[in-house]
Structure formats: C-alpha cells, structure tokens
Amino acid sequence: MIKAEYAFDLPVPPEDAFARLSDPVRDPEWQSACVHTRLLNGQPRPGCQYEITFQLIGKRMSFTVEIDEFAPGRLSKFHTLEGPFHYIGTYAYTEHADGTTGVHWTFEVEPGDYFGIMPKPLLRKVLVNQVKKDSGKLADQLTRTTQPPS
What we know:
The chain is α+β, with helices and mostly antiparallel strands. It is 26% helix and 43% strand. The protein has one domain: 2-Layer Sandwich (Alpha-D-Glucose-1,6-Bisphosphate, Chain A, domain 4). It has a seven-stranded antiparallel sheet with strand order 1-7-6-5-4-3-2. 19% of the residues are buried. β5 and β6 form a beta hairpin. The protein has three helices and seven strands; from the N terminus they run βααββββββα. It has helices at residues 14-21, 27-30, 120-146; strands at 2-10, 34-39, 49-56, 59-71, 75-82, 86-95, 101-110.
C-alpha cells in the first residue's frame, strides 16, 4: 500500500473549496490527469457513485468510485469499487483566520503490478507532484474568479 499526502491552501472559504474538490463532475476542470467523469446515481453525497477516467504515466485508467463521506466544508472521502487497482482518497478542510482554506489530501493506493517495475516511492512522488501542480492550478483559477474586476 502506498500512502501519499499533501497540504495546500485555496483562496476561498472551506464551503467553496469543498464544492469544487468534492464534486466529481468538476474534476476535469482542475485535475490535468482527469479525462472524464460521470455521476451514476444522483448528486454527490454519501453512497453516490461515479465513473472517472485518468490518463497518467502513459496509461488510461477507468474506475467506478463511491463517496463515503460528504461533510460540506469539512471532509470528503471516496474509494474505488471497480478499476485496475484500489484506492481511497480524502480531502480534509480547515478554515484559516483570513477565511481561506487549508486542504489536507491523502491518497492510499494498492497498485499491485499495474505500473510494472516502478518503485513505490517513485509512484508516491508522481502522485504528490501531480496534486501539487493541480492544486496550484486550482488556486490560480479560484483567485481569478474571486478577485473583484478592476
């Protein structure tokens, strides 16, 4: 099992950060590896299932995922039901004194031999670097949409 984690800040209140990060339909807007998502049984909530497809490390991967926890502005958690390997992801949200949000991302994955001989520490580094890049992109998007026009 590989556990990857990363903490980042977003320039919006926790409820707004949650709305962006915890709605799978919005994943392609900010996750560069996310190719497609589709809700399968209604709006995001505990028990909601969705399909998601990624293109990462030269591989196209499709999963069916279920949302486990969905506490607006506080916590979202999900896990795979079907796919080439199993993973569990979590976003925990903390409000900063200035009203912005700290996000703690964790990702536990058991890739088996899906990525061949790639060492697990290297895969962890690839995952964290992807989240660093994508969370920076999201922070930039949110900064542009929350700044008043000049």
